[in-house]
Amino acid sequence: MGGPGDPPEGTPEGGPGGAEDEYRSVVFDESFVRAARLQESSAAERMADHAPAVRRRPPLRRGLTRQLLVLALLIAVAFGTAVYLGVRHPYGSTPVRRSVEALRMTVIPLVPQGRVPGAAGPERLFAHSPAAPFAVGAEGIPLPASRRTAHFSDSQVMTALTAVKDYIVRSSLHPEVLTGREVRPVRALVDSEQLAQFDRSVAHPAADGRHAVTGWMVRIDPARARLADDRIRVFGTLKATEAGAATLEVSADHTFVYALRPTGAAPRASVSLFTVRRELTFHLDRDDLRTRQVQLVASHVQAGPLACAEDASAYLRPLLAGQTAGTGGPAGTDPYDTDSPAHLCGTLATGAQPRV
Questions:
Q1: DSSP codes joined into one string, 24-89
Q2: Per-chain mean pLDDT for the chain
Q3: Which of 20, 40, 106, 222 has its Cα between 20 and 30 A from that of 281?
């Protein structure tokens, strides 16, 4: 008899391990079992004639791709609806316009007392004038140490000071600006909300306190004088404060001294000095700091030697070596015309001229 674990017929032919060895290579792993879509028939199904013991299960529905497409379509429709409602908002969506002040300006001619001093070269004039210790060019416009304010960081204050210095350099020292050949270097630094006023000043200059080109930049009449020395002497200061929680104010006070020779004169013709003091006030909001532009809101200019009767709105027309202001005065000021500021003239102190 066989043992308790042997089948009644005895051990299959071929030894105890024969069948086992035959099917040892067949492995039903988990992926194989999951892939087999077989299901045992129910009792009712098995009682029916010729019903198979098992039946093949229908394949799983693969609707994931379709669901994703539907979901994407719903998201697109929702997004489009939101954009449409934003554009067609019943209360309007007009952007808030920034409040930028118009530039107010004053240009005061300084009339000499007697003849304008001259010399053969600029060195002697500079050495014997109050401009002797002045620096040359942009070096005369040093940046102060930047200190943060209540609403602006150190770097923002420095950005404001640098933008203002760039404006002063371009509008006071660039030869193409001084001679009236170009305005673009200055215009590029003006806040976009002031460009209309700037362009009108260039196209139609007027002594109305708002549209003098010489309020925006130093502009010497090229028909009258040219630079005898491109080393312009400069002295002045910059100061930054807050004009409000959203605006920095930079105050600039600089004196520029130009050595001039008559246009078309011989190279050895006498040279004279022309002095321009510019007291400027700038505002810069956070948009200006980002674009590195400025709002010039106040410009007070004193320039001489000039004749009081000259219109200084388009060009500064200096009196040159040996010339005098004459006896002419302004055409007249109407005190009833409140739209036009009074014509102002000053006297150029004798000590402001070189002693030669």
A1: TT----HHHHHH--EEEPPHHHHHSTT--SEEEPPPPP--HHHHHHHHHHHHHHHHHHHHHHHHT-
A2: 83
A3: 222
**DSSP codes joined into one string, 294-307:** BEEEEEEEEEES--
Q: How far apart are the first and last CA of the chain?
A: 146
Given a cut of 90, is residue 282 above it in pLDDT?
Answer: yes
How far is residue 231's CA from residue 134's CA, in Å, rounded to a whole number? Answer: 11
Residue with tokens 């118009």: 102
The pLDDT, as a whole number, for residue 42 is 62
Tokens 């004798």 belong to residue? 350
Residues 297 and 282 sit within 8 Å (Cβ to Cβ): yes
Measure the CA–CA gap between 211 and 252, rounded to whole angstroms: 20
Report yes or no: 218 and 276 within 8 Å, Cβ to Cβ.
Answer: yes
Helix (H), strand (E), coil (C) string for 116-130: CCCECCHHHHHHCCC
How sure is the predictor about 166, in pLDDT bands with cuts at 50, 70 and 90?
Answer: very high
C-alpha–C-alpha distance, residues 144 and 150, integer Å: 18
- How many Cβ atoms are within 10 Å of 98's Cβ, its own excluded? 14
Closest CA to 226 of 183, 184, 274: 274
Token pair 């060009």 in the structure block, residue: 315
β-sheet bridge partners, residue 206: 211
Q: How many CA atoms lie within 13 A of 2 on its CB side?
A: 10
Phi, psi (5° rounding) for residue 228? Answer: -95, -15
Structure tokens that stand for 268 in this block: 């050895």
* pLDDT at position 93: 41
pLDDT in tens, 169-219: 999 999 999 999 999 999 999 999 999 999 999 999 999 999 999 999 999
